[in-house]
Specification:
4 helices; Cell_wall_metabolism_enzyme; Chondroitinase Ac, Chain A, domain 3; Glucose Permease (Domain IIA); 10-stranded antiparallel sheet; Immunoglobulin-like; 7-stranded mixed sheet; 4 domains; 48 strands
């Protein structure tokens, strides 16, 4: 009878979603942080550029300023105010060992908002990262802590919500905590790919296989390969009843009924999130915007708690028999899709391994051209790269070096490498002081002020592309959104920032000689009128000092009335 009771209790726990394969997270301890039903725009582990998505993106019906409430009792342990990333964020530490994070907020609750504002004026600095003691800002479950928004690195109004292990700071999959989010839709598979692994997944790259669907079962034609060493990858999304393309939670790869690889995305540390680039087909993601996830470990991929099996997913074909391949995808609710196909090796002539400046995983490497040196750490690459670096003439009159082609922007690197460039002529000390390295990686540019090591200019980067040395003598500037001396009736002042090369790295505004709190919104600067500049006052003088990446400083003054 006792055994029967425990068995029935176990079954009940399964039905309640309490028992998970590897985790035993508290169920229903945390409430919805919004007062509207939880709808997902993105889930934990979804593929992003250079990182996993580390929480849930909760829809706010395309609106801002919805109440955001504490998911459980605890205390505000930290806030952040930053230009990109989280924008305005609140961290709440709870007595059960977890911390919740709420990001892209417009405004904190009044008492906290006033504290942050006072700190900003005291420090004369808008960006903040403040920690608190347990007794400073205690909160109750359901208490309003902020208003939702679209601040930081947000592309539209929503709430980013995380649950972290307070001790380890690992981000945990919030969907494992029992939130009531309906989901009856199995993952959707749209592509199967195989790779010749005798050298690298990057060369020659993915071989696509068409997939056919019948219900939640997918098939493909016989996969015939010309290499005895291969691996697979899958293109798939999860829909979760709500239309958005969400990331895959759990995948398994079996050959002839034997599990040879699996991954599950339960927890990730921010220190490791860049390893996403070793879990996906990075060239396809950057070039073609396709999220294809490897069903194997790349040799330089060291993400903890991702791969579940001791196998690497590498398939070594010793015969020309037909083998059965099965791929099983599951979401957190257990909705399952299966793809079955057949695999056969057709022997052909051996592939010739690439030659040249090969950069290997887990090995440091220095690659050089006549006027360039690139130093990679042992953690730099996830898979072998036949690295091609060369110089070509640069037409930009501000350039003082050739263009240095660093292989391809479609190949990822894990950590920063050191790039050294020798200028094409002798530079004066004044010129050296204004020299930057510009790295163009296609979708954007990265500019860093150089450090000089004798006659070599040095910079550190974590993307590949085309680099050059520039002398930047251009001043940064801001332009006012009002006419000089005008009466401003709007609720805020807007300054648009511009700089020809690099970024505005420092901004300071003084109103009638006193520091004024402007928020950084992407490339613009916004001051929302408060008691520092009351209505009916003026005329006012606004002094703005900006500094760009090269260190060029500009001081501008504007006048207005309130």
């Amino acid at each position: 009878m006792k055994i029967f009771y425990h068995l029935m209790l176990f079954v009940c726990f399964i039905n309640m979603g309490i028992v998970h394969a590897q985790n035993n997270y508290p169920q229903n301890y945390f409430r919805n942080p919004l007062n509207i039903p939880m709808q997902l725009a993105a889930n934990f582990g979804a593929v992003r550029t250079n990182h996993f998505h580390m929480g849930l993106d909760l829809r706010t019906n395309s609106q801002e300023n919805l109440p955001v409430v504490a998911a459980a009792e605890g205390y505000v342990s930290r806030i952040k105010v930053e230009r990109y990333g989280f924008g305005n964020a609140v961290y709440i530490t709870h007595p059960n060992g977890y911390t919740t994070v709420y990001a892209h907020l417009n405004k904190y609750f009044n008492k906290l908002d006033e504290y942050v504002k006072e700190r900003q004026y005291k420090d004369e600095k808008w960006e903040q990262d403040i920690t608190f003691q347990p007794g400073q800002f205690p909160v109750e479950k359901g208490q309003q802590i902020a208003l939702s928004g679209n601040t930081g690195g947000s592309a539209g109004p929503h709430l980013h919500f995380e649950i972290r292990d307070t001790k380890t700071e690992e981000c945990l999959n919030p969907l494992l905590f029992g939130f009531a989010i309906p989901d009856t839709v199995a993952p959707i598979i749209s592509g199967l790919y195989w790779y010749d692994r005798r050298f690298s997944t990057y060369e020659p790259g993915a071989n696509g296989i068409a997939v056919k669907k019948a219900g939640n079962v997918y098939t493909s034609n016989l996969v015939q390969v010309n290499s005895p060493e291969i691996s697979f990858a899958i293109k798939a999304v999860d829909k979760a009843n709500q239309g958005f393309n969400l990331g895959i939670y759990n995948a398994e790869l079996l050959m002839d009924g034997k599990l040879i690889y699996s991954f599950k995305i339960d927890k990730i540390h921010y220190d490791d999130t860049r390893y996403i680039n070793g879990c996906i087909d990075y060239p396809k993601f950057i070039r073609d915007k396709m999220g294809i996830q490897h069903l194997s470990d790349l040799p330089g991929m060291k993400l903890q708690n991702y791969s579940l099996s001791n196998e690497t997913g590498m398939i070594s074909l010793q015969d020309e028999n037909v083998h059965t391949i099965e791929i099983v995808l599951k979401d957190v609710k257990g909705n399952t899709s299966r793809l079955t196909t057949k695999l056969q090796f057709n022997k052909t002539s051996d592939k010739v391994s690439p030659t040249g400046k090969t950069v290997m995983p887990n090995e440091g490497k220095t690659v050089a051209t006549e006027n360039t040196e690139i130093n990679f750490s042992k953690n730099a690459v996830y898979d072998a790269v036949n690295f091609n670096a060369y110089e070509k003439p640069e037409a930009d009159p501000a350039a003082v070096s050739n263009s240095i082609v660093l292989h391809s922007p479609y190949i990822p690197v894990q950590d920063e490498y050191t790039l050294k460039i020798k200028p094409g002529r002798k530079l004066s000390d004044t010129e050296k002081d204004k020299t930057v390295i510009l790295l163009d990686y296609g979708s954007d540019k990265n500019v860093v002020k150089v450090k000089w090591n004798n006659d070599w200019a040095e910079g550190r980067f974590n993307r590949l592309g085309t680099a050059k040395l520039l002398i930047d003598n251009n001043l940064p500037s801001v332009s006012a959104g009002w006419a000089e001396g005008a009466l401003v009736n709007s609720s805020s002042l807007l300054l648009k920032g511009t700089t020809k090369v690099g970024d505005i790295v420092s901004f300071r505004a003084e109103l009638d000689g006193k520091w004024l709190r402007f928020a950084r919104v992407k490339d613009n600067f916004v001051y929302t009128f408060d008691e520092k500049c009351p209505k009916g006052s003026g005329p006012h003088t606004l002094k703005v000092t900006t500094v760009n990446t090269a260190g060029n400083t500009n001081v501008q003054t504007f006048t207005f009335q309130r």
